Amino acid sequence: MANTGNLHLGVDLGGTKLLVAAYDSDRNPRVWRFATGPEFGPAEIGNVIALVKRETGHAGAAVIGLAVPGLVDDTGTVLESDVLPRLAGWRPDWASAVLNDGEAALVSVAAGEKPEATLAAVGCGTGIVAAIQVAGVRLRRFRPFAGELGVAPCGREGTFDELASGNALLQRLKLDAEEITARTQRGDEQCRKAIRAAGEAFGIGLTTLLHLVHPGRIGLYGGTLRYPGYLEAAMTMLNEKAHPILLRQCRVEMMRDTDLVVAQGALREALRR
Question: Which H/E stretch holds residue 124?
Answer without folding.
Answer: strand 119-124
